[in-house]
Structure formats: C-alpha cells, structure tokens
Amino acid sequence: MDILLLLIPMSVVLVLLVGAGFWWSVKSGQFDDLEGPAHRILADDDSPAVLPPVPGGVDEAGRDGASLTSIKPGGGAAS
Q1: pLDDT at 65 (0 to 100)
Q2: 3-state secondary structure 34-78
Q3: pTM
Q4: Are 7 and 15 a contacting pair, CB within 8 Å?
C-alpha cells in the first residue's frame, strides 16, 4: 500500500506532462492540416503552368510564332 503513495503522484505528474505536450502541439499548429502534405507528395506538378509562345519559332504544340502574331484583335486573320 505504501507504493501507491509514490505511484499516484507520479501518474498525475505524467498525465500533466502529456497534457502540456498535447496543448503545446495544438497551439503551435501541428494538427492544422493532416492530409495536405500527403496530397502534395502525390501531385505531379513538375512542369511550368503556362509556356509562352516562341517568337518566330515553333512551340511544343507545333504552332509557329509568326501565325500567333498575325491574328487581329477582332477575331479575323491579318491580310
């Protein structure tokens, strides 16, 4: 029975330490986004979002730069 006088206060101190650690981790933002890092690993976003047209040359889609500049703003082709 004398051991309970030691074990009960030690368990209370341990519970308080675990509670303080959990409170600190919640306050510091450790549990804000649990799924975001897993989705970022799977996202394959190695290529740039928009490729600018190559002036005077041919871009990856096979369009030449001269035909891209010969379109009028009104929708018709330049003559």
Answers
A1: 54
A2: CCHHHHHHHCCCCCCCCCCCCCCCECCCCCEHHHHHCECCCCCEC
A3: 0.44
A4: no
